[in-house]
# Entry
Amino acid sequence: DAKTTQPPSMDCAEGRAANLPCNHSTISGNEYVYWYRQIHSQGPQYIIHGLKNNETNEMASLIITEDRKSSTLILPHATLRDTAVYYCIVRVWGGSEKLVFGKGTKLTVNP
Amino acid sequence: EAEVAQSPRYKITEKSQAVAFWCDPISGHATLYWYRQILGQGPELLVQFQDESVVDDSQLPKDRFSAERLKGVDSTLKIQPAELGDSAMYLCASSLSETSGGAPSYNEQFFGPGTRLTVL
# Structure
C-alpha cells in the first residue's frame, strides 16, 4: 500500500502557482519524498525528490515540513501542459526498494 | 534525448491467448522494471531486473506471467493465457543502477510510453 495521502483532484488557473499537498505521516527517517507526474497516455516522469530540506529544480519546488509528515509540490507558473496526475511517493534512498504509487492527484490547469 | 522504447503500443487479444510485450531500456541502464497500471490506479511493480537477474517479482502472477532479460539489455514480458482482468497499461522503466561504486544511490526511473492491452 502507498504510504502517502493526496487529494484526488485539484484545479489551477494557467499562469498561477499550483500547490499540490501530500501527507506522509508514517515516513521513516531514511525515507525520501519523491514526486512523479503522468501526462495522459504517457509513462510517469520524475519531477523532484528531497529528504528534509526544501528542493528546487527547473520543473518545480518541494517544500517538506519540519516534522517531515507532509510536503507540498509547487509548480510556480502552471501551464496547460502541466495538466497531469501527480504522484507523491516515499522511498528509501538506494537499495532495491520499489516505487509504490498511490492514486495521485489529478491536476487540471484551466485557461 | 535517449528514451525507453516499448512495443507494441496497443494490443487487443482474446482471453486464453498468449501476448508478449517488448522493452528496450536506455543504453547503459542496468535496472529494468515492468509495471502494470489499471485504469484509474497508479502503476504497480510486477518485476525488477538488475542486469539479467530478477531482483523482485513478488507481485508477478507467476502462473501466467513471465519475464526475461536474457542478455541484460532488452526485456520481454509474456502473459499466457491472457484473462479479462489483465486489461491494463504495461509500463517499462529503466534506471542507471541501484548502486554506484558500492554506495547506494538513487537514479531516477525513466518510463516508456507503455503498451495498452485489451483482453476481449
Q: What stands out?
A: The CA atoms of residues 13 and 110 of chain A lie 5 Å apart. Chain A has a mean pLDDT of 92. Chain A touches chain B at residues 2, 32, 41-46, 49, 85, 87, 93-96, 98-104 (CB under 8 Å). The two ends of chain A are 35 Å apart (CA to CA).
